[in-house]
Specification:
Methylamine Dehydrogenase, Chain H, 4-stranded antiparallel beta sheet, 54 strands, 1% helix, Ig-like_fold, IPT/TIG domain-containing protein, Ig_E-set, IPT_dom
């Protein structure tokens, strides 16, 4: 078998050729499988997968994009080398300028099964443009450079690396050379907060890659540091750092040129703060009343649980169990009976189902591809009410505008029902279908959808009928105008649609029947007779402070508010949990990478709405932050953390 790629922008096609005594014959062609210009890919004979230099991992037999390594640390696409002796893949290239200052090379190792970063090695002496990367000996890597890049002073060379970073299970062939420094990766800090005005604190920092020269930093200011081991250091935090409320970034480095990946957030909070705040970067969360746990889809930049689905006890903040090896999960739903949790991946056109409460027995299936546009990704999906084995999925391509070109399909377990609603095709109303978000009706026979990312195309609202054969379009309302990135939420008690832009919509008549006058992330709760809206007031816009408003569901009058100060990252999701809880997941494209903010406040969440309140007390609020873009088309043995020689 032979593989090839068209690296031009007219298709990014990937080819599979059958080779025999007469030559090569084209066997399969997949469009837009690797999404980059004219770079290399590498076949891993040990697992049958193909690795691209932009981190994408492809099954060449099925044309499925199964995952992607997080290569945000590199300035350009690096060289790639799967290691056939280990479940490891290496990437070598220039480090990101904004993170590391003057350009220099780094070498990163990733676990091919979990997609987790195992370690990073600094290569400050390398000059030139790296062209080839190969394995040699027991624990060696070699590469050469040429002088054809943008730095005129670069000189070509050949470089040899040998040691336990490459293979911690074998003896190096050579022990001479320059000892290189690793870049630490932080996984946790303890404690994570202190009261304003507290005395000096001893901060325990855990991670990988610490060396005796390690120094901890508080907002880029060096702190007195004690090296404990290659997985732990301690920092002394003086009272002057705790004199005012705020959030600070904790980092560690082993040298003067590079700081740790996954910095951790430390919070100085005011008296009376009761929220539980976890350093956990998640694009989506869901509540399961059966197991009494929150479940979080944790993305690849998280320090402690990258590429994982984790359970969190919201009463204590304890994390566990977890399921690793799910690359960049970004959508997550719990079935109505608490039997399963489903997730869709940010950089894979697959879905995965896990059994609850143990997150066991993963079932993964592909979402298919378009003959021209390539792999189709989940734009949204919802589990069917009363049918735990059934999900509705709307899919699309992340390299087009609009993205919603995949249509709507119904899956039972991993089997797609026959009838699928196509997108980018003309429906019975004479217009082209576009489906973005989804919401089930009161049962598993009715489904709703609207257009999120319309880019000026249309603003339709759809009603679909679902039966054992699949899904069909029933009705369409035009001019369902809503703000960009406003999702719909169905309330079974009232039969109404609540929209993130504040409107309340009747899906039967197509009429707007109410408006909250605020926008953000909306959570209707008929059990409490309330509607919650997370947003920012005009004064909070551009800050890290947010407000949650509560409205009486009958009168739509505002009945309460709480302020959230110094949130790490930007909100990605808010959910109700338990009798009186709210939880907010955030992500951050810069460090620290986000948090899970857990509220348990009966006086605000679950207390009866005061009678006669009609005037606003706070607000209105708006969705004034940049919504995290889900749909972009971007623990290991301690011995690997030790330095090694460079020849």
């Amino acid at each position: 078998m032979l593989y090839g790629q068209n690296g031009a922008s007219d298709g990014f096609d990937f080819y599979q050729f059958q080779v025999d005594g007469t030559g090569a014959t084209l066997a399969k062609r997949y469009s837009n499988l690797f999404t980059y210009f004219d770079f290399g890919f590498y076949y891993n004979r040990s697992n049958g997968l193909m690795y691209g230099v932009n981190g994408e991992v492809v099954d060449p037999q099925t044309g499925t994009l199964v995952g992607r390594f997080n290569l945000a640390s590199f300035q350009f696409w690096p060289l790639c080398l799967p290691d056939l002796e280990q479940d490891v893949v290496f990437f070598l290239g220039p480090a990101s300028w904004e993170n590391y200052g003057p350009p220099h090379y780094i070498l990163q190792a990733f676990d091919t099964k979990t997609y987790r970063q195992l370690g990073t090695l600094e290569l400050p002496q390398v000059t030139g443009d790296a062209k080839n990367l190969v394995r040699w000996g027991n624990a060696g890597l070699a590469f050469n450079t040429v002088s054809d890049n943008v730095w005129a002073t670069d000189k070509p060379g050949v470089y040899l690396i040998d040691g336990d970073f490459v293979n911690p299970h074998k003896t190096p062939d050579v022990t001479a050379g320059t000892i290189l420094k690793t870049i630490p990766r932080l996984t946790s800090i303890s404690p994570v907060s202190a009261l304003v005005g507290s005395g000096a604190q001893t901060l325990t920092i855990r991670g990988t890659g610490f060396q005796p020269s390690a120094t901890a930093y508080w907002n880029n200011n060096a702190q007195s540091t004690t090296y404990i081991s290659d997985t732990q250091v301690q920092a002394s935090i003086p009272p002057t750092n705790l004199s005012a409320e705020g959030t600070s970034s904790i980092t560690v480095n082993n040298s003067s040129t590079a700081v740790a990946f996954t910095p951790q957030a430390f919070r100085v909070v005011g008296a009376g703060s009761t929220a539980i705040r976890l350093n956990l970067g998640s694009y989506d969360i869901a509540w399961d009343s059966k197991s009494a746990k929150l479940y979080a889809a944790v993305w690849s930049a998280d320090g402690a649980y990258p590429n994982a689905v984790v359970a969190v006890d919201p009463n204590t903040g304890n994390v566990g169990p977890s399921r690793i090896g799910i690359p960049d999960p970004d959508l997550l739903r719990v079935s109505s009976d608490g039997t399963y949790v489903y997730t869709a991946q940010r950089h894979a056109n697959t879905m995965t189902r896990l059994d609850l409460p143990g997150l066991d027995n993963p079932l993964t299936w592909p979402l298919g591809a378009d003959a021209f546009w390539g792999p189709m990704f989940a734009l949204d999906f919802e589990t069917a009410p009363g049918s735990p084995n059934t999900v509705a999925v709307t899919t699309g391509d992340r390299g087009t505008e609009p993205e919603s070109l995949g249509g709507v399909a119904i899956y039972d377990n991993d089997i797609q029902r026959t009838n699928k609603l196509c997108a980018d095709c003309t429906n019975q109303f004479g217009v082209i279908n576009l489906f973005d978000d989804l919401a089930w009706g009161s049962d598993d026979t009715t489904l709703y959808s609207s257009i999120i990312d319309d880019w000026g195309y249309r603003d339709d609202f759809y009603t679909m009928g679902v039966n054992t054969s699949g899904v069909d379009l029933v009705s369409r309302f035009e001019k369902f105008t809503k703000s960009y990135n406003s999702y719909i939420h169905y309330d079974s008690a009232s039969g109404l649609i609540y929209v993130d832009d504040g409107r309340i919509f009747d899906p039967v008549t197509g009429n707007t029947v109410g408006n909250l006058g605020s926008s953000g992330y909306v959570v209707p709760d008929s059990s409490l007779g309330k509607i919650f809206v997370l947003g920012q007031t005009a004064a909070q816009s551009g800050t890290a402070d947010y407000t949650v408003l509560s409205f009486d569901k009958g009168s739509l009058s505002q009945v309460g508010s709480i302020t959230i100060k110094n949130l790490v990252g930007v909100p990605a999701k808010i959910v109700r949990w338990g009798a009186s809880g709210l939880a907010i997941a955030t992500v951050n494209n810069v460090a620290p990478i986000g948090e899970l903010y857990i509220i348990n406040d009966a006086s605000f969440v679950s207390s009866a709405s005061p009678a006669g309140i009609g005037a606003r007390t706070v607000g209105p609020v708006r969705l004034s932050w940049t919504v995290p873009q889900r749909r972009d088309r971007a623990s290991k043995p301690a011995s690997r953390s030790q330095g090694m020689p460079l020849r």
